[in-house]
Design brief:
- The chain is α/β, with parallel strands linked by helices.
- It folds into 2 domains: 81 residues, Sandwich (Immunoglobulin-like); 178 residues, Rossmann fold, CATH 3.40.50.410.
- Helices cover 25% and strands 27% of the residues.
- The chain is built from 6 helices and 13 strands.
- The strands form 3 sheets. A 6-stranded mixed β-sheet has the order 6-5-4-7-8-9, sandwiched between helices.
- β5 and β6 form a beta hairpin.
- The longest helix has 15 residues.
- The chain is globular, with a radius of gyration of 19 Å.
- The N terminus is likely disordered.
């Protein structure tokens, strides 16, 4: 994930005040990841020595912090596909999203709500107020074509990349869609790269409840895996709520690793991350890499 701009003594920003921009560039990588067993059960309580890490093919110069950060502040957005193809399922998706916010938002967390078809509709910007998020979700109306890649690219660029935070936070998007795209100007790879630039994990919940997976389901899987998230495929409509619950559980069961990479150049190039548990029974899910910073102007 992208090297973070850190202050010597991280503290949480006041929710009502603009966050101060930190100008000091520190060569540190904040990596948030999840560990599961072969059945998908979350594995907690592991230590730094239980993992092997390579950054751009080389071990890090130093591991600065390793914690199980279940309470790291969340900056989470729900993107609801409002194209005409999901009209029959839309109210259930709205209800599930509202319940998700009620369960997951703690004092220092903030969230936003957005709908998208051929355009994006930011129904509610970042807030800690669940009532406002509820109102935003209820304002959305389905109809129109689908520009999924454009929406994801724009959302990560405008909502996540512009966040100025003192200290580490977890940036996540919950994407509720059938994965189909018939209108975007940017490619899927462009959308993924913008998620990686914005240090944002994408979880997707498919609205395709047919017995077989289709091209859209594969799109959701590729986006989620590249960003360190996971795709969920409900078998019936009621399982959409289970998808939201699984994401909520995961966001409270993650590890936080801060390290200093070897050979970091301020050239804006993509650097791969390879993180693996030494115990073969465990599977690590993390972002595939990050973009190195460019020199501070």
């Amino acid at each position: 994930m992208a090297p973070a701009q850190q202050s010597p003594t991280p503290s949480l920003p006041n929710q009502d005040q603009p966050t101060e921009t930190i100008k000091v560039q520190v060569n540190e990588v904040n990596l948030i990841f999840t560990v599961t067993d072969k059945k998908g059960k979350f594995i907690t309580g592991l230590k730094r020595e239980n993992f092997g890490l390579l950054d751009d093919g080389r071990p890090p110069l130093a591991v600065l912090r390793f914690t199980q950060q279940t309470n790291l502040p969340l900056r989470v957005g729900i993107m609801l596909d409002t194209s005409s193809s999901i009209r029959q399922r839309f109210q259930f998706e709205q209800d599930s999203a509202i319940e998700f916010f009620l369960q997951i938002l703690h004092l220092n967390d903030r969230a936003f709500v957005e709908g998208f078809d051929i355009q994006t509709d930011l129904a509610q910007d970042f807030t800690n107020n669940v009532d406002l998020l509820n109102q935003g979700i209820r304002k959305l109306r389905p109809g129109g074509g689908t520009a999924l890649f454009d929406a994801l690219y724009k959302t990560c660029k405008d909502q996540m990349l512009t966040l100025q935070e003192v200290g580490a936070v977890r940036r996540a998007i919950v994407l509720v869609s059938d994965g189909d795209d018939n209108y975007s100007r940017v490619q899927e790879s462009d959308a993924i790269k913008m998620c990686q630039r914005a240090d944002t994990i994408v979880y997707s919940i498919s609205t395709n409840i047919s017995p077989s997976k289709d091209k859209g389901d594969e799109v959701l899987r590729q986006i989620s895996e590249a960003t360190g998230g996971q795709a969920f495929y409900p078998i019936k409509l009621e399982d959409v709520a289970i998808g939201f619950h699984n994401i909520e559980e995961e966001l409270r069961s993650q590890y936080h690793l801060v390290y200093r990479p070897a050979g970091l150049k301020m050239d804006g190039a993509f650097r791969t991350i390879y993180l693996q548990a030494t115990d073969p029974r465990y599977h690590v899910r993390a972002q595939k890499g990050y973009f190195a910073p460019r020199p501070v102007q």
